[in-house]
Design a protein that fits this description.
The complex is a heterodimer of chains A (319) and B (250).
Chain A: H1 5-29, H2 37-60, H3 79-104, H4 109-134, H5 147-170, H6 175-200, H7 207-210, E1 217-222, H8 230-235, H9 241-268, H10 274-283, H11 285-301
Helix pairs in contact in A: 1-2, 1-4, 1-5, 1-11, 2-3, 2-5, 3-4, 4-5, 5-6, 5-10, 5-11, 6-9, 9-10, 9-11
Chain B: E1 12-17, H1 26-35, E2 45-46, E3 54-55, E4 60-68, E5 77-85, H2 94-97, E6 104-106, E7 113-115, H3 125-129, E8 136-138, E9 143-145, H4 151-154, H5 167-171, E10 177-181, H6 188-196, E11 212-214, H7 239-249
Parallel strand pairs in B: 1-11
Antiparallel strand pairs in B: 1-10, 2-3, 4-5, 6-7, 8-9
The chains are: A mainly alpha (319), B alpha+beta (250).
Chain lengths: 319, 250
C-alpha cells in the first residue's frame, strides 16, 4: 500500500497524543500526578495539540476536505465513521480536563472525572483507527489479530515516554513513570516483532483464485494499460525485501532499543543525578519519534493488496 | 446509508465468458465513451497524450497465460486468456460498509453498487476495501468513481429496447459478455452460469460477487477424428509428372 505521509503522521501523532491523554487522564483520576499548571500545558495540552495536528493532517489527504463533517454519519457500519465520532466526542472531556486542570487544579472532582473519561475516549479512538485497518480483508498484513493490540501498544508506549519526559522537564524525574515507560516499550517491542513474524507467514489468495481458475498457474503477460493507474499507484506500492529488513532493524533500534536504554538510565539516575536523568528521559522522545514514523511507513509499504494479483505481482518472490 | 440491504429484489450483473473473449478492448472503449458522459461523468484523463497518461476507467482487460498442472499430460499445456475486470456488484461489498459518509450504497431494487459523488469526501477507503481493484479515484474531481452497470442505459426509455444493456455488453463483438438478473434461477444468464459452471472470483474473501466468470472450455490434445490416418497415392501416374515422381521417389 502507498505510504501516504498524511496518514503516517496522523496515526503516529494522534496515537501519541491519545496515549499521553489517556495516561495523564488516568494519573489525574487516581490522584497520582502533582498539581502543576506546567504539566497541564505540557501534558493534556500537548496531547490536544498532537491529536489536532494529526486529525488535520488526515483530512489533508481527502479529495474534498470541506465535506469531512459528513464522515460522522455512518457509524453503524463504518470504522472510519466511528473513528470520526470517537475523536469528536473525546474532545469534550479532553478540553474540560486540560482547561480545568489549568484553571482549578488537577485535584478538582470535575477534572478527575474528565480525565477518566478522556482516557476512555482516547483508547476508544485509537481502537477505531486500528479497526479501520484490521477490518480490510483484501490486506492480510492488516486484517489479523495483531493490528489492534499493536496500535494500542504504540499509542500507550509513545504516550508513556512523552508523559515521562513531561514530568521530568516540568517537575522532576519520576522513577515510577520511567519504569512504566520501560515496561510499555518492552511490551510494544515484543508485540511488534510477533506481528511482523505473523505477517511474514501470511499469503494472499493465488492469481488463479483471483481470476477464477480452479487449478493451474496464471501468469500476467499483458497489462490493460501502459502506465501505472490509480490501483497500482495506491495499492501496488512495493518495498524491496532487503530494504524492508534493514528498515525493520532501524525501526527497532530507534523506537525501542535506544529509548529503552535512555528511559531506564533516567529512572536509575533520578535521585543521584536529576539533571542527567531529566536529560535522558526527555531525549528518549527524539529517537522514538523517528522509529515510530519508520515503523508506520513500513506498516503501509509492506502491506500487500489482493488487487495486485491481477497485475502479476508475485509477493512471495519479491526481491 | 452504508448499511447493506438484507436482500435485493433483483441481482443485476454480468456474466463474462473467458472462453470467448478475444481481448479486443471494445468493451473497454465503449464503457469509457458512454460513461464519460453518463452517471459518473466525467471519466477524467490526466495527460492523455503525454509521457505518463493516467485516467479513470471502469473496465480493464488483462491478458494471462494459464498453464494447467495436469500430471498426465506430456509437458505443460498453456493457453492465453483475456480477462475483463470491473466492479462485480457484490452481495456483501465492504466498499459500501466502510464508507464513512453514506456516499457508497447498494440499491435494494437491483443490487447495483453506486457512489453519490456529492457526498464522497475522497478518503479512498472503499478502494482499499475492494479486493478486485474495481474502484478508481478521480484525482481531478476529488471523488471515487466506479462501474454503474450503466444504470443510465438499462432503464433508459429513450433508447431502443435492445440497447438497454450496459455499454460493454452492447459493444462486445464476440458475445462474451452477458447481462441479466442473476438472482432469478430461470433467467438466461443464470442458466448460462449453471450450464457452463460459472465461478466467483476469490470466493474465500466472502464478498459474494454477483458477476460470474465462465472458465475456458477444456482443451483437446488432438484434432477431431474422421480425417485420413495417412496420405496414400491414389494411382500410378504416367507421363512427364509420373517420370518426375518415380525419379524423386527412387
Amino acid at each position: 500500500m502507498h505510504p501516504a505521509f498524511s496518514v503516517i503522521f496522523f496515526t503516529t501523532a494522534s496515537g501519541a497524543g491519545y496515549g499521553l491523554l489517556a495516561l495523564a487522564g488516568l494519573g489525574a483520576a487516581f490522584g497520582l500526578l502533582p498539581d502543576s499548571r506546567a504539566i497541564a500545558i505540557a501534558g493534556p495540552g500537548l496531547a490536544l495539540v498532537l491529536i489536532t495536528a494529526g486529525l488535520l493532517s488526515s483530512t489533508a489527504h481527502l479529495g474534498h476536505p470541506e465535506r469531512a463533517w459528513r464522515a460522522v454519519s455512518q457509524w453503524r457500519s463504518s470504522w472510519l465513521s466511528r473513528e470520526g465520532v470517537a475523536s469528536v466526542v473525546t474532545y469534550g472531556p479532553a478540553v474540560i480536563f486540560a482547561g480545568g486542570w489549568l484553571l482549578v487544579g488537577v485535584d478538582a472532582g470535575i477534572v478527575r472525572v474528565a480525565g477518566f473519561l478522556s482516557a476512555i475516549g482516547a483508547m476508544a479512538t485509537v481502537s477505531t483507527t486500528a479497526m479501520i485497518y484490521a477490518s480490510l480483508k483484501p490486506i492480510p498484513n492488516w486484517s489479523n489479530r495483531f493490528t489492534l493490540p499493536v496500535y494500542l501498544g504504540f499509542s500507550l508506549m509513545t504516550g508513556a515516554v512523552l508523559l515521562n519526559a513531561v514530568l521530568a522537564l516540568t517537575v522532576a524525574p519520576v522513577p515510577v513513570m520511567g519504569w512504566i515507560g520501560a515496561a510499555a516499550i518492552a511490551i510494544c517491542w515484543n508485540l511488534k516483532v510477533a506481528a511482523w513474524r505473523h505477517a511474514d507467514g501470511l499469503s494472499l489468495p493465488t492469481a488463479a483464485s483471483a481470476t477464477g481458475f480452479a487449478s493451474g498457474t496464471v501468469r500476467s503477460i499483458e497489462w490493460p494499460h501502459s502506465q501505472e493507474n490509480y490501483v497500482l499507484k495506491e495499492m501496488g506500492y512495493r518495498v524491496a525485501r532487503r530494504h524492508a529488513a534493514k528498515l525493520r532493524r532501524i525501526a527497532q533500534a530507534l523506537a525501542f532499543a535506544v529509548p529503552l536504554v535512555l528511559v531506564v538510565t533516567g529512572a536509575l539516575t533520578a535521585t543521584a543525578t536529576p539533571l542527567l536523568s531529566a536529560l535522558c528521559t526527555a531525549l528518549a522522545v527524539v529517537p522514538m519519534a523517528a522509529g515510530v514514523l519508520t515503523e508506520r511507513w513500513l506498516f503501509f509499504a509492506e502491506a500487500r493488496h489482493t488487487a495486485t494479483l491481477y497485475y502479476g505481482y508475485d509477493h512471495d518472490r519479491a526481491a | 446509508m452504508t448499511s447493506l440491504p438484507a436482500s435485493t429484489t433483483r441481482k443485476l450483473g454480468l456474466v463474462i465468458d473467458l472462453d470467448t473473449c478475444v481481448g479486443c478492448q471494445a468493451c473497454v472503449t465503449n464503457c469509457k465513451e458512454w460513461n464519460t458522459g453518463g452517471h459518473m461523468a466525467p471519466l477524467t484523463d490526466i495527460d492523455p497524450y503525454g509521457a505518463e497518461p493516467d485516467g479513470v476507467w471502469f473496465n480493464r482487460v488483462h491478458t494471462y497465460e494459464h498453464t494447467e498442472d495436469d500430471e498426465h499430460s506430456i509437458g505443460a499445456r498453456s493457453r492465453t486468456v483475456h480477462f475483463p475486470r470491473s466492479c462485480l456488484h457484490c452481495k456483501t461489498p465492504a466498499c459500501v460498509t466502510v464508507c464513512p459518509t453514506g456516499a457508497s450504497y447498494k440499491r435494494t431494487s437491483d443490487g447495483i453498487v453506486l457512489v453519490d459523488e456529492d457526498k464522497c469526501i475522497g478518503c479512498k477507503l472503499c478502494s482499499w476495501a475492494c479486493p478486485y481493484g474495481a474502484r478508481e479515484f478521480d484525482t481531478d474531481v476529488g471523488v471515487m468513481k466506479k462501474c454503474t452497470l450503466c444504470v443510465d442505459r438499462i432503464y433508459n426509455d429513450n433508447l431502443p429496447e435492445e440497447d438497454r444493456v450496459p455499454a460493454c455488453v452492447a459493444a462486445c463483438p464476440a458475445g462474451a459478455r452477458h447481462f441479466g438478473d442473476l438472482g432469478d434461477p430461470e433467467s438466461p444468464v443464470s442458466q448460462l452460469v449453471a450450464e457452463r459452471e460459472g465461478v466467483d472470483l476469490m470466493p474465500e474473501l466472502g464478498y459474494g460477487p454477483t458477476n460470474k466468470y465462465l472458465p475456458p472450455r477444456a482443451k483437446r490434445d488432438t484434432a477431431s477424428e474422421g480425417g485420413p490416418a495417412r496420405l496414400e497415392p491414389l494411382a500410378e501416374s504416367g507421363g512427364f509428372f509420373g517420370w518426375v515422381d518415380r525419379m524423386l521417389s527412387g
